[in-house]
Write a structure and sequence with these properties.
heterodimer, A: alpha+beta, 4-stranded antiparallel sheet, globular
Chain lengths: 548, 311
């Protein structure tokens, strides 16, 4: 049966104009928006940290993405509104139930002149799925995402011609364009010749910026790639300067020693917003911060024979009602966050807004009572006389001060409805180790944030489908069935409807205590023109200019 | 003297071996880096696969024997996070960035206290003495990260960019981080020299020197300071450890791309090879400087040589 693929044409972008040679090689304009710019200038951007590597296979977290995506590009690009647009692929479409086809951009070269073509894509797919590595003579690396495990239904890939690649699956995969298309692509011949280790030294990509110098833990310096196919950079050079301390970053901006800084703390953003010499901009990020609760049954973890204390969804829902998000967002984030009751980030494709969890301690207590937790002088106890306790693991200083303050405030809110909470601070690595070993106590929980490198909301709702590090409340059979239906539904409208239904049910089933979704603030000098923060993990400096 | 030196060298080798061995096991007690390298949505099998790729699934004794075999050649393995040779990374960050910063701070913390401490002692309870004691108290009490930020706000912002707020490159980049790093040991050394001088100036031989009609400057700097400097020298050697550990904070505040910043990332990231290589280098430096201090002490105070020779 042929599926109605016309309905998924939102993803099947075909832009014949994109086949034409790009604007590569064109000289940058002398002015933008009627303002004279300095095309020979160096744009200096202060970041919080240096990347530890530049090989996309090692991972694409928020720090790495900022560096990697200046040099490397993916098949699918993103516009300022977070919508997919042609990148190294000019089109992507399903050709039947089990096959996707990518049409590749022509006349694109890597910075060393190596042509980008179907062989490049096949090579990168081989690396992603750990196939043919011996044949290619390259090493395997400890990858952030094991594609062969996460997407085992991707069976093979083939070159149709030099600019067309097909990917075959064993089951319908409506989001394949996203999870494969967003991976940055490295050059084939260059990588085979120099080895995968060289990707962490001075790699070449197809991106708008050529890496010219990397002084580790200090700065990375780029030059404009004059042969770039897309919107060209409007400054000759770009320097990503590492300044870990927020106060030092802002001091450097005010002293005129950098042009743009990222990760402005909420309180500073509010103060700087009143300063005429500085511009503050912000964008909603995909970072969703939550408290995860042990809702696993005893057979799903190292339990000592006990179910998790938060198996009952009414208890988890009650804890959501106990949290005053508006106060947190106003007092701690100064408006630089938003509540989101959906499991999917508000800026992800397929997000369906959900009714906010109200701040209603009375209803929280009522729900807890309904779940069998009676209020007594020694707190909430069940029929067996056992108190409702939460042993919360907090990876302090990992997600920032505002996160730590939020968790501290939430602990008091939970105590106010009768939950006895103890907090254990630990480093992030120790938290992950506990989760890997599966030794979270039955009354355990942990505070953490979840982000995504993909555009589609599937990446978020996948969290509860299999036993992963962060999944401590696996889907019950009916929700798992609904989730799997969204994974196989290729009709876009039907899929969106199913995804919305799943989000509604997940909202009520409440696998986590939803805290907030972050907005990231940036500050820049008035010399910086046309800087718009993206909703992705990276900053995009294409089209950004410096006033002369 | 040769036997003394040989004994100290053998001693140094054992100290360095002991330190790196303790660190080898200690860092592994803190946990496993594999989970930090995979997505949070990874399964236990994916984490296990990463452990296997890193060689962390092998028995601990086998890992240790490999380490012992390779470390003397300077091979500490590949950084878990950067996939580059760990010792090369450490040396890249140590030289010249951390070496430059530490050297500048050591010079400030050892040269400046001598005149300050001597003047404070010779003008006891005078204005200079009170000012020096107050200043020392202030510098020792200030947390270095706070002092650093205040200096940045003053010199880079309030004074219109007089000095750079971050990074390294020119001499002007070095001034603020070196001053901040030197502040606490400098203050301590001023107090130490002052106290030493106050004690020595009471001794009979100083009174004799004065009675002989020697110029006061000669009495103070030639006779008294030489003896007062022995504890100062010992503490200066030990303060090298403080300097090296102090760079961790200072390099972060001033965005100084040295070893401190490398360690700041390596420890929470559980980058075992980098931590081991860095600790090895720190241990060698610390032992070497203290060996030099021991030798200098012998030159300054013959009693040390006599004692060591008798031992």
């Amino acid at each position: 049966m042929r599926l109605p693929y016309r309905a998924v044409l939102w993803a099947a972008v075909v832009l014949p104009l994109s086949f034409l040679p790009g604007v590569g090689g064109a000289q940058p304009p002398a002015s933008v928006d009627g303002i004279a710019i300095d095309p020979e200038a160096e744009l200096v951007v202060a970041l919080t940290a240096d990347t530890t590597n530049l090989d996309p296979r090692l991972g694409m977290g928020s720090i790495r993405s900022n560096y990697i995506r200046q040099v490397f590009e993916s098949l699918v690009d993103v516009d300022r509104d977070g919508k997919p647009v042609p990148g190294l692929a000019v089109s992507w479409k399903p050709v039947d139930d089990l096959t996707w086809e990518f049409g590749l951009r022509r006349n694109v070269t890597f910075h060393d002149g190596e042509p980008f073509n179907a062989d490049t894509v096949l090579f990168n797919l081989d690396r992603m799925f750990r196939r043919n590595l011996d044949k290619l003579g390259i090493k395997d690396v400890p990858a952030g995402t094991s594609f062969e495990k996460v997407y085992p239904f991707v069976s093979r890939w083939e070159k149709v011609d030099d600019h067309t690649v097909r990917v075959h699956t064993t089951e319908p995969a409506p989001t394949l364009w996203d999870f494969l298309g967003r991976e940055p692509l490295v050059p084939r011949a260059w990588t085979i010749k120099h080895g995968v280790e060289a990707l962490n030294e001075k790699p070449v990509g197809t991106g708008p910026w050529k890496l010219v110098e990397w002084k580790r833990k200090d700065h990375m310096r780029f030059e404009r790639h004059d042969g770039y196919w897309g919107t060209p950079p409007l400054t000759k050079r770009l320097r990503l300067q590492v300044i870990p301390e927020a106060a030092a970053r802002l001091a450097a901006l005010r002293a005129g020693q950098v042009h743009l800084v990222e990760a402005v703390p909420p309180l500073d953003a509010e103060v700087l917003g009143r300063d005429a010499a500085v511009r503050v901009v912000s964008s909603v990020q995909k970072l969703a911060c939550r408290i995860y609760l042990n809702g696993r049954t005893k057979d799903k973890y190292d339990s000592g024979g006990r179910d998790g204390a938060f198996v009952d969804p009414r208890v988890r829902l009650a804890l959501n009602y106990a949290v005053n998000r508006d106060a947190i967002i106003k007092k701690i984030f100064h408006g630089l966050a938003l509540p989101n009751a959906s499991p999917v980030a508000t800026v992800s494709y397929g997000h369906a807004p959900q009714a906010p969890y109200p701040y209603d301690p009375a209803q929280a207590r009522a729900l807890l009572a309904e779940a069998g937790w009676k209020a007594t002088p020694r707190g909430l106890v069940n029929a067996g006389g056992e108190a409702l306790t939460l042993q919360l693991l907090l990876p302090a200083k990992h997600y920032g001060q505002a996160f730590d303050e939020t968790v501290t405030a939430v602990v008091e809110m939970l105590k106010a409805v009768g939950v006895q909470v103890t907090v254990q601070t630990l480093d992030f690595g120790s938290l992950l180790q506990t989760l890997t070993k599966g030794t979270l106590p039955p009354n355990g929980g942990f505070a953490a944030c979840r982000t995504s490198n993909n555009l589609d909301g599937d990446d978020y709702v996948r969290d509860w489908a299999s036993t992963t590090l962060v999944n401590w409340t696996p889907y019950p059979p009916e929700l798992l069935g609904l989730y799997q239906a969204t994974r196989r539904q290729v009709d876009a409208k039907k899929r969106l409807a199913a995804l919305a239904d799943l989000q509604r049910q997940v909202r009520d089933w409440a696998p986590v205590v939803s805290l907030y979704q972050e907005k990231k603030a940036y500050a820049h000098s008035p010399r910086v023109l046309r800087f718009t923060p993206t909703q992705e993990l990276n900053m995009d400096f294409r089209g950004v200019a410096l006033k002369r | 003297m040769r036997a003394f030196l040989l004994r100290r060298l053998v001693h140094a080798v054992f100290v360095v071996w002991g330190v790196v061995t303790v660190v080898f096991f200690l860092v592994r007690l803190t946990g496993d880096p594999a989970a930090l390298l995979v997505d949070q949505t990874a399964t236990r099998e994916e984490v296990a696969r990463t452990r296997q790729l890193l060689g962390l699934d092998r028995p601990l004794y086998a890992q240790y024997l490999d380490f012992l075999g390779a470390a003397p050649r300077g091979d500490f393995g590949l950084s878990i996070r950067e996939r580059r040779p760990a010792m090369r990374m450490v040396l890249e960050h140590f030289w010249p960035a951390t070496a430059q910063l530490a050297f500048a701070a050591i010079v400030l913390a050892t040269v400046l206290p001598i005149p300050l401490g001597v003047v404070a002692a010779t003008h006891r309870d005078g204005v200079v003495d009170h000012a020096s004691r107050l200043g020392s108290l202030f510098l020792q009490s200030m947390p270095s990260f706070w002092l650093g930020l205040m200096l940045i706000l003053l010199f880079a912002v309030a004074l219109g960019g007089l000095l750079p707020a971050y990074g390294r490159g020119t001499l002007s980049h070095l001034i603020l981080p070196a001053l901040t790093l030197a502040a606490a040991p400098l203050a301590q050394n001023v107090r130490l020299i002052r106290a030493g001088m106050l004690e020595v100036l009471q001794h009979d031989y100083v009174r004799t020197a004065r009675a002989k009609g020697l110029a006061e400057r000669r009495v103070v700097y030639r006779h008294a300071l030489k003896n007062a400097a022995v504890p100062f020298l010992t503490v200066s050697g030990l303060s090298l450890g403080f300097m090296l550990s102090g760079t961790i904070v200072i390099e972060t505040v001033f965005s100084w791309p040295g070893m401190g910043r490398l360690i700041v990332q390596a420890v929470p990231g559980r980058d075992f090879p980098v931590i081991q290589a860095a600790v090895f280098l720190f241990a060698v430096l610390f032992v070497a400087v203290n060996l030099v201090v021991d030798l200098l002490q012998g030159l300054l105070d013959p009693r040390v040589r006599v004692f060591e020779g008798a031992a």
